[in-house]
Amino acid sequence: MIETEVTVQNSAGFHVRDASLVCKTAMKFNSQLRLHKGGAVADCKSCLDLLSLMAPQGTELVLTAEGDDEQAATNEIVKLFNVKFYEDEFASLAPQRS
User: Fold this and answer.
1) Structural contact between residues 13 and 51, judged by C-beta atoms closer than 8 angstroms
2) Does the chain have fewer CB atoms within 10 Å around its N or its C terminus?
3) What gap in Å lies between CA 25 and CA 37, rounded to an integer?
4) Is the pLDDT confidence value at 5 over 70?
5) Is 13 left (phi over 0), alpha (psi -120 to 50) or beta?
């Protein structure tokens, strides 16, 4: 079992698009992946579970992975947090206001 801390860095906090990215990524792996916030535990393969964490910017979460591909799964989920769920790239696609 792998346990690692991740921090919600994106300005909008952990929201629907982020939960969807985590869920989509987690589904590629056999391992059980969970995010923990205090006493709350969310299955990374369930968008509803993930959204129930209600994690604004700066929230520290613990990611646990258990299974035959736990290291690869952990790496992919941690990467999403580290790149702020591609927030900067996504923002650049939004129409510019004048």
Assistant:
1) no
2) C
3) 20
4) yes
5) left
CATH fold of the domain at 2-93: Histidine-containing Protein; Chain: A; (3.30.1340)
Collect all residues with Cβ–Cβ distance below 8 Å to 55 and sequence separation of at least 6. 8, 13, 14, 37, 61
Sketch the domain layout of the chain as residue ranges. 2-93
Taking residue 62's Cβ as centre, other Cβ atoms within 10 Å add up to 14
Known catalytic residue: 15?
yes
The residue annotated as part of the active site, out of 12, 15, 36, 59, is: 15
In sequence order, what are the beta bridge partners of 35?
42, 63
Q: Report pLDDT digits (tens) over 36-92.
A: 999 999 999 999 999 999 999 999 999 999 999 999 999 999 999 999 998 877 655
Q: Which one-letter amino acid corresponds to residue 40? A: A
For 2, 50, 93, the CA distances from 63, given in Å and listed in that order, are 8, 12, 30
